[in-house]
Amino acid sequence: MTNKDAPTALNLPPQAELEPWLKAYFDKCQDKLGFVPNVLRAYAFDNVKLKAFIDMVDDLMLADSGISKLEREMIAVVVSSINHCHYCLTAHGAAVRQRAKDPIAGELMVQNYRAAPLTKKQMAMLDFAAKLTETPAKIVEADRQALRDAGFSDRDIWDIAATASFYNMSNRMAAATEMRPNVEYHFMTREKVPPGAKS
Fold it and tell me: Is residue 34 within 8 Å of 184, Cβ to Cβ?
């Protein structure tokens, strides 16, 4: 496909006539971000598919949880790094930089989370997400117990697993369709080094 303005490499139907709340959701993205994320544009040929995607993402990433919103973005980045998902690394890398208010730590998360300044609890969470991504059949009770020992509840473990599982699915859809990140993501939350800061 030669149309690089399209959100994916697939020749999908044009954007459906969005239901009112979906149109309002797109308008909110435009107002808040200055653009509509291409992942939403990719699903927008079908209201049912778009609604299902938004409902799942909003529940996983924004609902009340013992896992902070930043930590959920960290999970998305770690999973996407393992899967080499260009779209999700670009979009969620920007989200980590923004939520952490630390572009350097955000870059480390994208490149190698084990080199990032994380707490032991966060490291345990991300190690679990990484194992679930790389070798899901090898998850055993000891892996869940390690999370409990780090201070996570069983409900937290559910949320960690659900977030990691969703982004594994999302990464595969992005790979299958050559989903293209919005250019704006590349420039988000990349402040210049303050004068006098050590390089």
Answer: yes
Q: Tens digit of pLDDT for each residue in 1-23?
A: 446 789 999 999 999 999 999 99
- The encoded tokens of residue 190 equal 């990349």
Amino acid in position 48: V
Rounded Cα distance, 85 and 177, in Å:
11
Q: What is the CATH number of the domain that holds 123?
A: 1.20.1290.10
pLDDT value at 43 more than 80: yes
The verdict on 146 and 73 lying in the same domain is yes
Closest CA to 53 of 63, 64, 42: 42
Best CA proximity match to 5, nearest among 47, 48, 36: 36
DSSP letter, residue 199: -
CB-based contacts of 191, cutoff 8 Å, min separation 6: 103
Do residues 56 and 83 both lie within one domain? Answer: no
pLDDT tens column, 150-160: 999 999 999 99
CA distance 94 to 174: 17
Q: Is the pTM of this model over 0.85?
A: yes
- Domain assignment present for residue 196? The answer is no
Quick one: how far is CA 20 from the chain centroid? 26
Domain that holds residue 145: 67-175
Q: Which of 67, 90, 107 is nearest to 171 (CA)?
A: 90
N-to-C CA span, the chain: 42
Distance CA 197, CA 48 (A): 50
